[in-house]
Design a protein that fits this description.
- There is one protein chain.
- The chain is an all-alpha fold and about 325 residues long.
- Helix content is about 80%, strand content about 0%.
- The protein has 13 helices and no strands.
- Helix 9 crosses helix 10 and helix 10 packs antiparallel against helix 11.
- It is elongated and about 85 Å long.
Amino acid sequence: MDLDVFVTAHHAEWDRLDRLLGRRRPTGAEIDELVTLYQRIATHLSLLQSTTPDPVLIARLTQLVARARSTVTGTRHASWRDAARFLTHGFPSAVYLSRRWWIPTALLSIALAAVIGWWIAAHPEVQASIGAPSDLREMTRPGGQYETYYSSHPAASFAAQVWTNNAQAAAMCLVLGAFLCVPVLWILFLNMLNLGVGIGLMSSVGRLDTFLGLVVPHGLLELTAVFVAAGTGLRLGWTLIDPGPRTRRAALAQEGRAALGMAVGLALVLFISGLIEGFVTPSSLPTWARITIGAAAELAFLIYVYVCGGRAARSGEQGDIERAARSAELPTAA
């Protein structure tokens, strides 16, 4: 493409759009013209970006298109309606659509924790490498560290600390997924290693039921949130490797926006699991009652994802922001 000829042919349209954007109260006809010029010049910008490396001209048109888009779409403010839409459509649909990632992640991770637990329980030499016999007895005895951990601090502060730690772990899985999945796998391994060590040590002294009675009430919902975050992070990392029919930039932008929304939603889920861990797990309720509360919270979350999320996904919701609030995707030259 001859750049001089292109500029000569279209600079009048660019100047006209610039003048229209400077009008404080454009007429109806001028608004229609502004929209038409915005669409036309957005195409001009796309052609220049794909064929002509002229940074000055591209910068000018980029600024012009951005101003025009802001004028055409208007300034949008978040509202309670947006929060309600996120909770009823955006977040559950994002979790539902990523289920092919987080469900296998959950199954494989639990299997890994079980194998680690069996290996430690069946091999005294492995137990000896974890700690001195006196330290292990202190951890696993009745009233030992595994049991007193959940009541070692006031319930409210303990719940807040647990929520903060788990939210950070989930956020790291979501964010670090962009680094080709490797950090997410490492975070998952560390979490399953900690769980497997507890299973193995408590099994070795015949107190696995006590350990599960302490972990299951909050662990069902907590681990589900971690698995959802990890699965979403892995999905984000795989998008870099295989973006599908979308451009890599568009695919990463879409999946990244969904992941950021997922971080907010999972923070709420982890807040609930933190409350259970702070107030229910160390309570004097019988084990069956504590496990029932945890199972009810987990079941409620799964119903929320599969009913609300499935319905929203089938209606076209993808967990992304509304179309009007997204950056315009310009056509590219073949």
